[in-house]
């Protein structure tokens, strides 16, 4: 049920956009954060509403004969009950089914009223790193320092080499929420998964204009072929010396990039720190135990974490790799297909995240990439 100001806004947007119902509805949904609806919130319904407005000069609906709509009468009670359920839960969650049970209503009716009358939608809780007061202070200080660097040189952030490692399991992970099976009865379908699935550990680094091909931490074995290794300081240093440095020199970027890494133990060992300072200088390193430390507990700020690994894992398993060799080939193939415009947009998303970080005092941020 739209309020009088909302109806007036709809009519105003309709005339302001050359009497286009589609454009008016799109702008209305953006301003009011409404996903969908019926009645005036459809193109045909809006045209009908405007026609009635032109005929009567009134925004109110015509008086209707018959009994009042039960949905509208029940909406306030359902809203109160949902708030009561949320107040009783430690996480602030509520349940349409529980509200229906307490009110003695069909769950489908309650869900219908929540969506169409109260315009409420279900959202799932998301897990994130716990932030202590010291963590938020460091995150806020980092954001202020980063903005001072961007103010001095707007291209600085696009020349940061964002680096990270991630594990890729051969059999991937099945998200049960995204794999429903609609049937008249329970099909009892199962997906088999090894207890210890073989995996590879991949390293990647990218700036706002280029990406370095993945590096895999592994060793050759005459019997079993390649064996995945854990990342220690010596292996990480070998990666920097034999892969990262030659690539940056070949691209002519060794004097431009600022090297970024998280606070993993292998990243901050003395021999690694000495190599980074010798290669980039202390003023072009963002890392724990350096002049400009990367803030702790901040995967929501790292482009590799909030974009790269999720994107790659959504792509590499589409081909159904059956061996570690095929899995590595898929990773390399997907990395090489990433367009520089996507990298630029991702780094811009990091800046947007920093802009959201300051108003919330260093708290968690959510990224929306386009």
From TrEMBL:
InterPro entries: RNaseH_sf. It comes from the Eukaryota. One of its GO terms (molecular function) is nucleic acid binding. Gene3D superfamilies: Ribonuclease H-like superfamily/Ribonuclease H. This is DUF4817 domain-containing protein. It comes from Trichonephila clavipes. The lineage of its organism: Eukaryota, Metazoa, Ecdysozoa, Arthropoda, Chelicerata.
């Amino acid at each position: 049920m739209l309020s009088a100001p909302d109806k007036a806004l709809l009519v105003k947007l309709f005339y302001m956009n050359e009497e286009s119902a589609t454009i008016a509805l799109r702008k209305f949904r953006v301003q009011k954060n409404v996903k969908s609806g019926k009645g005036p919130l459809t193109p045909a319904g809006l045209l009908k509403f405007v026609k009635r407005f032109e005929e009567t000069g009134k925004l109110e609906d015509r008086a209707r004969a018959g009994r009042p709509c039960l949905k509208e009468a029940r909406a306030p009670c359902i809203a109160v009950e949902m708030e009561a359920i949320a107040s009783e839960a430690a996480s602030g969650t509520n349940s349409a089914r529980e509200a229906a049970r307490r009110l003695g209503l069909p769950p489908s009716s309650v869900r219908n009223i929540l969506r169409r009358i109260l315009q409420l939608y279900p959202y799932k809780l998301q897990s994130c790193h716990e932030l202590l007061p010291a963590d938020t202070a460091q995150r806020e200080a980092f954001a202020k320092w980063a903005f001072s660097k961007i103010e001095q040189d707007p291209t600085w952030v696009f020349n940061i080499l964002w680096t990270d490692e991630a594990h890729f399991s051969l059999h991937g992970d099945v998200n049960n929420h995204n794999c429903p099976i609609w049937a008249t009865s329970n099909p009892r379908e199962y997906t088999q998964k090894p207890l210890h699935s073989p995996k590879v550990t991949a390293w990647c680094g990218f700036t706002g204009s280029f990406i370095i091909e993945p590096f895999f931490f592994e060793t050759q074995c005459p019997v079993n072929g390649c064996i995945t290794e854990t990342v220690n300081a010596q292996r990480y240093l070998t990666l920097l010396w034999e892969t990262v440095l030659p690539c940056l020199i070949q691209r002519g970027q060794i004097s431009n990039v600022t090297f970024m890494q998280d606070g993993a133990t292998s990243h901050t060992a003395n021999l690694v720190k000495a190599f980074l300072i010798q290669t980039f200088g202390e003023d072009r390193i963002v890392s724990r135990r350096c002049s400009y430390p990367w803030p702790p507990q901040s995967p929501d700020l790292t482009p590799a974490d909030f974009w790269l690994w999720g994107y790659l894992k959504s792509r590499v398993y589409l081909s159904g790799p059956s061996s570690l060799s095929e899995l590595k080939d898929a990773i390399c193939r997907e990395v090489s297909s990433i367009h520089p415009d996507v990298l630029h947009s991702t780094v811009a998303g990091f800046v947007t995240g920093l802009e959201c970080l300051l108003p919330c005092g260093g708290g968690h941020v959510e990224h929306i990439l386009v």
